Recover the amino acids of this structure.
């Protein structure tokens, strides 16, 4: 049992050393987002809640997004599961459920094999405003019509 523990510790040390060496030498995939925050501003209830976060792999190895975890069930992520080649662009899409009226301040945690930011947080913000009430038809006499 002691040999297994020693081998496990050695493996972890080598793996950690490799990651540290990659980060200090700058070798490996690097993720660079165009923007980390999407501001909807004021958006109407039931409007299109889709937004896209673009990124570039500025490293020298393929970048792999391993997961995108959102802060609530009202935010749905999607992204390409294919590796992003060095110099290529990728995107992560988030869809917010705009049936919820009120302020928006949500986040998604992006995990990747990037040497500069293996965990990155992207955010959405804004305010969902209620749809205006439909006007009630009024007759010429000023009485509501049926």
């Amino acid at each position: 049992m002691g040999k297994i523990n020693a081998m496990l510790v050695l493996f972890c040390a080598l793996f950690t050393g490799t990651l540290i060496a990659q980060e200090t030498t700058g070798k490996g995939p690097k993720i660079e987002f165009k923007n980390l925050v999407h501001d909807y501003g004021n958006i109407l209830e039931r409007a299109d809640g889709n937004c896209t976060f673009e990124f570039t792999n500025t490293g020298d190895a393929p970048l792999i997004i391993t997961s995108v975890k959102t802060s609530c069930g009202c935010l749905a992520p999607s992204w390409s599961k294919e590796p992003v080649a060095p110099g290529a662009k990728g995107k992560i899409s988030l869809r917010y459920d705009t049936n919820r009226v009120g302020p928006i301040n949500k986040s998604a945690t992006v995990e990747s094999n990037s040497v500069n930011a293996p965990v990155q947080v992207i955010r959405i913000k804004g305010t969902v405003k209620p749809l205006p009430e439909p006007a009630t038809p009024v007759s010429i006499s000023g009485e509501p019509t049926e």
